[in-house]
Specification:
Distance between the termini: 7 Å
Number of strands: 21
Helix content: 25-40%
Structural class: alpha/beta
Radius of gyration: 26 Å
């Protein structure tokens, strides 16, 4: 047995730039570059040359982002806001061509009249992508002009209040809908989803006045929600292939205990479900519902399972996790993450207790652990998974952050996995900044990829 180390390094050769390559690019590419810039940065390109003086007025994507914008102005917030408003007004009045995307990320409540005028103006310009984010703590009440966008394909609203007009017939071309930290009524969010039949990607996070979700979508392919709702029901979603259930906000955690039996039944019956991402508090909710031994979830189509921010302080939650893996026999990829060091006491009790049980993950081929500074119990759990996965092909460790990992630690991890599964043919991979043992602490650190045949 040996460990093979491969170092990925790149070098940049010195080149002399003889011509203005950006100015000679096709307009479609220049438009793409300018569209990635905030408005103030796009305006600054007008001083590059005579040919660039008015190019910013022809971009198809406008980003009004006041985070860090106009910092060079020594003025109060109101003066800076007025300057930004004048700049946006000048752009809209002199813009030439199509305006495909409009993004507002500013203090909308302070400049309510300006934002209202912008929405009214661009509602007649055929905008396809619209983003609105309020930066203040007070939620921004979205005007009814939003519902006049006839060609909208993507809509994202953050920290807003929205009321769907009774006579609104829906966005017929809307493919992506994202609502975060919003105030909207239960019946309005349900109706909004129903009258937008083309939605493929749906994100609903921290909806303050919504305690239950009922989702129907024949075209829906991706769903991203949190665990802060008392009930979630998914109906008629034959194409839904990816579901992500994130950790609920503190405000949502104060609600009544959720009833997730309907959601479990819905997820089990989804015919196209391939990827499921769950926050760890979801397993704790299941553990409290006493579904440890006979897990009610089973889906033969599920192939990828992602567990976010695992905590190893509940043996019942760990049992639920293993039950979920066993109830979905075709899961071949498992990925889990830990943010903080977890005590090995509870995990050790669970692993010792279950060592004698006939637990096997026969179809599992890839497992990935993402961690911060230290793994703690996460390493023991991964060793447990490797030991009971006869078809495992790779076990990958991804260390996030800038702090390095010593080569001694890599070798210790490798030895523990080898002891846990001496007959495994899995490849152990490390993705991290590594500092060799013989290198001084001030030496240059590089990103290394280790492959070790177990």
């Amino acid at each position: 047995m040996k460990m093979v180390q491969s170092i990925v390094e790149g070098s940049v050769s010195n080149m002399e730039i003889d011509i203005d390559r950006i100015s000679n690019l096709p307009w479609d590419i220049q438009d793409m570059i300018l569209g990635k810039l905030p408005l103030c940065d796009a305006v600054r390109t007008s001083v590059l040359s005579r040919g660039w003086r008015y190019k910013w007025l022809g971009v198809s994507s406008l980003v009004v982002d006041s985070t860090g914008i106009l910092d060079s102005l020594e003025a109060d917030k109101q003066t800076k806001g007025d300057a930004l408003t004048r700049m946006v007004n000048y752009f809209l009045l002199n813009h030439q061509g199509n305006l495909r995307r409009f993004c507002i990320k500013t203090h909308c409540v302070r400049n309510m009249s300006g934002v209202y005028n912008w929405l009214q103006f661009i509602s007649r310009r055929g905008v396809q992508e619209f983003v609105l984010e309020e930066l203040d703590y007070v939620l921004f009440e979205v005007p009814s002009y939003l519902f006049m966008f006839k060609h909208l394909r993507s809509l994202e609203l953050i920290r807003c209040v929205i009321q769907v007009p009774a006579n609104f017939r829906g966005f017929n071309f809307l493919i992506e809908l994202s609502l975060k930290r919003m105030t909207i009524k239960n019946e309005e969010i349900e109706r909004l989803i129903l009258i937008c039949p083309a939605i493929e990607r749906l994100t609903l996070l921290s909806l303050y006045d919504v305690d239950s979700l009922r989702i129907r979508g024949a075209a829906l392919k991706s769903l991203f929600i949190d665990s802060g709702y008392t009930e979630v029901v998914i109906q008629h979603a034959p194409q839904l292939s990816a579901v992500n259930i994130a950790h609920a906000s503190h405000h949502q955690n104060q609600r009544a205990a959720p009833n997730w039996h309907h959601l479990i039944h819905c997820l089990s019956s989804l015919p196209s479900l391939e990827q499921l991402c769950l926050a760890w508090d979801f397993f704790e909710l299941w553990a409290k519902a006493d579904v440890v031994e006979h897990f009610p979830f089973a889906n033969d189509h599920l192939s990828t399972l992602v567990l976010d921010e695992m905590r190893f302080d509940s043996a019942d939650a760990l049992r639920v996790c293993c039950s979920l893996l066993q109830s979905c026999p075709n899961v071949h990829t498992l990925s889990f993450s830990v943010k903080t060091r977890c005590s090995r006491a509870v995990a050790g009790f669970f692993l010792e207790e279950d060592q004698q049980q006939n637990i096997s993950f026969r179809h599992l081929k890839k497992v990935t652990l993402k961690y911060g500074n230290q793994m703690g119990a996460a390493l023991d759990f991964l060793s447990f998974i490797v030991c009971r996965s006869p078809s495992l092909e790779s076990a990958t460790f991804v260390k996030e952050g800038d702090s390095p990992i010593s080569q001694r630690t890599l070798e210790r991890i490798y030895r523990q996995l080898k002891r846990s599964a001496p007959n495994s043919n899995a490849v152990v991979k490390f993705v991290a900044k590594v500092e060799p043992c013989d290198a001084p602490s001030s030496s240059r650190k590089r990103r290394l990829f280790y492959d070790a045949a177990a």
